[in-house]
Amino acid sequence: MFEELTDRLEIVFKKLRGHGKLTEKNIKEALKEVRRALLEADVNYKVAREFIDEIQVKAVGEEVLKSITPGQQVIKIVHDQLIELLGGKATPLNLSGSPPATLMLIGLQGSGKTTLAGKLARFCQGKGKRPLLVAADTYRPAAIEQLKILGESIEAPVYWEERDPVKICFNAVEKAREEFFEWVIIDTAGRLQIDEGLMQELTDIKSAISASETLLVADAMTGQEAVNVAVEFNDRVGIDGVALTKLDGDARGGAALSIRATVGKPIKVVGVGEKLEALEFFHPDRMASRILGLGDVVTLVEKAQQAVDLREAEKLEKKLRKEEFTLEDFYEQLQQLKKMGPLESLLEMLPGVGTKALRGLKVDDEAMVKIEAVINSMTTEERRHPHLIDGSRRRRIARGSGSSIQEVNGLLKQFFAMQKMIRTLTKGKLKGIPKGMLPF
Fold first, then answer.
1. pTM confidence score
2. Are residues 290 and 311 in the same domain?
3. Alpha-carbon gap, residue 315 to 438, rounded angstroms
4. How many structural domains compose the chain?
5. What is the mean pLDDT of the chain?
6. How wide is the angle at C-alpha 101 spanned by C-alphas 245 and 264, nearest 5°?
7. CA-to-CA distance for 51 and 34, rounded, in angstroms?
8. What pLDDT shows up at residue 437?
9. Domain encompassing residue 394
10. CATH number of the domain within which 285 lies
11. What is the CATH number for 10?
């Protein structure tokens, strides 16, 4: 995400840091480049102009120009101003109060409402709560079926009727109240374009259910069009916040950078992939750091905490101390890594790993599947004692996994190298680390 904008900003900041001494002229030239980069990223013209004006006032002050690291100071000002532009601080979904909390998803057709409904239901389950999905789109062919398939995949019930959408939503909330569901997530109908009928129906639904949260779902890939849609829906229906979908595919970032300043409503959640786990709550400070190529360690740690089973981690720590790391353990680590999302997106969160460094990187998902197939073709004894795998066993494993003997050999070679590295770490660093304090 934001690949093009991040690249441009990295070039500008590199020039700034390269100046031994900054002048007002240097700064204005750099900010002119930043403004151009924002406009090319499809940021609203007025928003870009006001953003640059704010930075310029702060950046040409005596305190910055006479500081030891003026280039870094200007970058910090840009970073702080970017956080403000994105909303200042995170705004959580307002789902408090007596249950059920009602979350109403609105937006144009194709914006990703149905998929987001499934993602939110999955998140709700992760918090130990019961969600009820509501199929209120009675116009789009297969809309109800799509939501039912998503619901089945996560074992979340879906409420639907063949009647007026307002009545469907009202009855769904009543059912949720009677059966003690904590969340009601309503997938409303969209249109290819805004029309009076759509707006009136949404207004009626919102009034009938007293929605706790009305969330506009907008496709980040549409740039300024997403901002225009947000303005229209806010004026006609009234929204509490925005969910930006397909943000992982948005190389420019215009919608994310313009919505808060233009509509006055916060971005609350973002979709960062197709999987139901690919949902993030929006944090302006973390997103600003990503845009400037500074990484996002906090989100990375949170993803790790969600993916890692603490009891399994303690078992692994004991094995590492005893130098008993096996292919079974390696397989478990692969499964936990997969839960955290695409490897490319995880690498983007590391400080100092710019988009240019990642541009040529293509993580081969098929290779991961192949590794799993090879390990699954081994016996339990072979996984626990890989040194037993001789030539005949390797041929059997290759046949069973649909791999070549060379691929099996390659995996074992990598694994034995990893074992050797772990032994080195154990003999060196790990011996002096108290129990429970290993960094993995």
1. 0.69
2. no
3. 12
4. 3
5. 80
6. 50
7. 10
8. 38
9. 301-432
10. 3.40.50.300
11. 1.20.120.140
